[in-house]
Model the fold of this input.
Amino acid sequence: MDHYAISRRLTLNYRFAFQGEPLRRVLLRCALPKNIPFQQDVLGIKCSTAPELIFMDNGNRFAQFDIREIPSK
Done:
């Protein structure tokens, strides 16, 4: 059996550590995976927080998150 034909589920978790002044806002832009013929089919994308905006730029799809409630340590 061709091991490239097996479906896989991928979960990404990001953790950031910032030092210095307290943060009031983080604007995060992430590239979203796309279908590539004969290589990958993206069956779905789920985000724990809904993106503020999904947009195309130079043929790629991005999600933008505007995070304003940032807890202090």
In short: The chain has no helices and three strands. Strands lie at 26-31, 53-57, 60-67. The radius of gyration is 16 Å.
